[in-house]
Amino acid sequence: MASPITVEIWSDIACPWCFIGKRRFEAGLAEFAGRDDVEVTYRSYELAPDTPVDFEGSEIDFLVRHKGMPAAQVEGMLEQVRGIAADVGLDYDFDNLQHTKTLKAHEALHFARAHGKQLELAERLFRAYFEQGRHVGRTAEIADLAAEVGLDRDAVLAALESGEHADAVAADIDQARAYGISGVPFFVFNGKYGVSGAQSAETFTQVLEKVHAD
Q: For every residue of the chain, which 3-state class applies, written as one string?
């Protein structure tokens, strides 16, 4: 039996290109003949670690402050991203998006991985953040979302409040630094092939075929 292909995806729940990249990767994986032997793991990356849990203001306000761009330019950029997201079936709602620190969401993803539900929780958190205006920085809200994908709400809440998975999140971020990752999404195949950005589905299929051939 062939060894599985491992795919580690460094991403942030608050990264619009990461959700787009997720959809494109999934589409590329669906076209790969050996898709049943691919193991996917989400790794932690914080795009803006200094973000407060309760950010006062809109996504436009955040980007104006964080990137120093004029509001009109930010609005145009978000509209462009919204259109690209729509092309892969996503309905981004930047008007109602609640910008927040994503550290606890990453801790929850590590908890979910330990309980066999990481892919389901990653999808749920992305949808909650970008499409539904949910607050994914608060532990109670994260626990609610985790329960929706079949995780024990009380156990998730306890893990988040104790910081049980904080070291695992820090280790992912350190590994990203060691790899030289400066932006996400970033995909690492079998620990040696790196693909940066939300590439096309075809690109992901080609990479998977190359890794399989090797």
A: CCCCEEEEEEECCCCHHHHHHHHHHHHHHHCCCCHHHEEEEEEECCCCCCCCCCCCCCHHHHHHHHHCCCHHHHHHHHHHHHHHHHHCCCCCCCCCCCCCCCHHHHHHHHHHHHCCCHHHHHHHHHHHHHCCCCCCCCHHHHHHHHHHCCCCHHHHHHHHHHCCCHHHHHHHHHHHHHHCCCCCCEEEECCCEEEECCCCHHHHHHHHHHHHHC
The DSSP bridge partners found for residue 7 are 40, 189
Mean pLDDT of the 47-66 span:
92
- Cα separation, 169 vs 173, in Å, equals 6
Tens-digit pLDDT profile for residues 179-208:
999 999 999 999 999 999 999 999 999 999
pTM score: 0.96
Mean pLDDT rounded to a whole number for the chain: 96
Among candidate residues 85, 98, 163, the one with its CA nearest the CA of residue 125: 98
Q: Are 82 and 92 within 8 A, CB to CB?
A: yes
The pLDDT tens digits of the residues spanning 90-107 come to 999 999 999 999 999 999
